[in-house]
Amino acid sequence: MQRLRSQQLLRRPLWESRRLGGGYCTSSSSEKIVASVLFERLRVVIPKPDPAVYAFQEFKFNWQQQFRRRYPDEFLDIAKNRSKGEYQMDYVPAPRITEADKNNDRKSLYRALDKKLYLLIFGKPFGATSDEPVWHFPEKVYDSEPTLRKCAESALKSVLGDLTHTYFVGNAPMAHMAIQPTEETPDLPSYKRFFFKCSVVAASKYNISNCEDFVWVTKDELLEFLPEQAEFFNKMIIS
């Protein structure tokens, strides 16, 4: 009898277990959850190597040249003859420094091509201690979305208008921070902020709205925009 009852409990639906008090544990019903989006544009060009790395690569090349095997002249002559008369295109590399770099246009995605760029918007985020707008990531307070990622998608969609040229990396957040009131900010609500990573896909410009201003910044610039959380974001963002 006892064994049969145990089997019936195991077959009980998950939703019924949650209704009866089982399921996942939450810290507090009044504690809010916020989904923030780290919207990044990946590198467009390969970064220049570090001077020490470049010096080693040059030394390695020169060292290998001493022991390389020389191709026979007959082979080289055949290769030269084959190239004659074939279509050849003069290759001119694009400049690494763009007009947006020269003008310091932080609203353009066509800048800092050898670095990643991140979207920051200017407005009043959840949990702000004053009515003054500040720089922050696109965000949304979790309400009734089926998953936290769907909440993050809604946060980014409210800024971009649609998610056509975007790609969310995974379903789980990349990091989170727990905010608690302090002696300096006793009115600050207690909440948890979860960060989701999303990448720019085949787009050179977005129609960003629902904010007072926006910028595309590198990691170093981002830390200057968010000095209070600079240590946290320096560890979270791998550039």
TrEMBL record:
What family does the Swiss-Prot or TrEMBL record give for this protein?
Belongs to the mitochondrion-specific ribosomal protein mL46 family.
Keywords (alphabetical) are: Mitochondrion, Ribonucleoprotein, Ribosomal protein, Transit peptide
Any one GO MF annotation of this record: structural constituent of ribosome
Q: Note the InterPro entries from the entry.
A: Ribosomal_mL46, Ribosomal_mL46_NUDIX
**Keyword Ribosomal protein in record:** yes
Q: Which GO terms describe its cellular component?
A: mitochondrial inner membrane; mitochondrial large ribosomal subunit
Where is it located? Mitochondrion
Originating organism: Brassica carinata (Ethiopian mustard)
Q: What is its main location?
A: mitochondrion
- Protein name per the record: Large ribosomal subunit protein mL46
